[in-house]
Amino acid sequence: GHIDIIEFLIKEKAPLEAVTHDLWTPLHGASSSGQTEAVELLLQHGANLYHQSLDEKTALHRACQGGHVETARALLQRAGADIHARSHIDEWQPIHFSALAGNAECVELCLKYGAQVNARTQSGQTPLHHA
Q: Would you list the domain boundaries of the chain?
């Protein structure tokens, strides 16, 4: 995230909701790579926090999948991301991706914001199955 470039492009009216063929927005990209400052900037300018990519993942899923706890915290604390959002892949929630990433701090953050420790996927798996 080159913040100065992001600011310039936003000023020049670059669409915040431009999507790739997989329906990723710039917010998905920044969240996936743990670019917290870029995430906050995009959100300040109106990026859609709830947009789902083709596989129905939100920016929070992407941050948790990458184990990016500070980015996940920004999405939850400052923007109010949905901790219970389910992805297309077996209806995983952010806590499942956090467990799979092996990031205990991210799992704790999900629990702090209301994720259920025994949240089940469509096939019945809990975060413990993915840890």
A: 3-130
CA distance 44 to 42: 5
The first and second tokens of residue 88, run together, are: 């297309």
User: What top-level class would CATH report for the domain 3-130?
Assistant: mainly alpha
Inter-axis angle of helices 3-11 and 36-44, nearest 10: 20
Residues ≥6 apart with Cβ < 8 Å to 30: 1, 38, 39, 42, 59, 71
Our separate counts of H helices and E strands in the chain read 8, 0
Q: Render pLDDT for 33-74 as a digit per residue (tens, 0 to 9).
A: 999 999 999 999 999 999 999 999 999 999 999 999 999 999
15 is written with which tokens?
């669409």
Token representation of residue 44: 């300040």
Residue with tokens 């929630």: 93
